[in-house]
Amino acid sequence: MLTLSFYRIRTCRPETLDGAAGEALSRESYGSRERPDCTLFLWRDPDGEPRMLQFLFGERFIEWSDGSAWIAGDTNRHGQEAGTPGHGKGVRTLQGRRAAADDAVLAEGLALLAGAELPAELRPILPALLPRSGPRGDAREH
Length: 142
What we know:
Layout: E1 6-9, E2 16-18, E3 24-32, E4 38-44, E5 50-57, E6 60-65, E7 71-75, E8 94-99, H1 104-114, H2 126-129
Antiparallel strand pairs: 1-3, 2-3, 3-4, 4-5, 5-6, 6-7, 7-8
């Protein structure tokens, strides 16, 4: 399997989201050098603790939220063929969220992340969020 190496995407626009407890969560974005269709988003609370993670790959995604099990799904572009009218146009949306125990999409996404080369700021965080054995399981305590 291809080893992905991620780099931080810097942007000038504000990268915040309101969390469930009303706190402002800051978003970090990471891209893959080897696969431009792979993007990782991490949201942190004001104390720097991870609260949410989304990994998009090949028009599919896996997602973790603090206190929740991993979920998986497809984007609205999944299944479209390149070169067809409308392919890649408009906003990408995440849809088809589903609990992901024994899900092939979750297994693929976790395998890509588990073998990835990570920037220094992600090295202590990401492995702690991945399930201990296979794609099953709730979010780990960290």
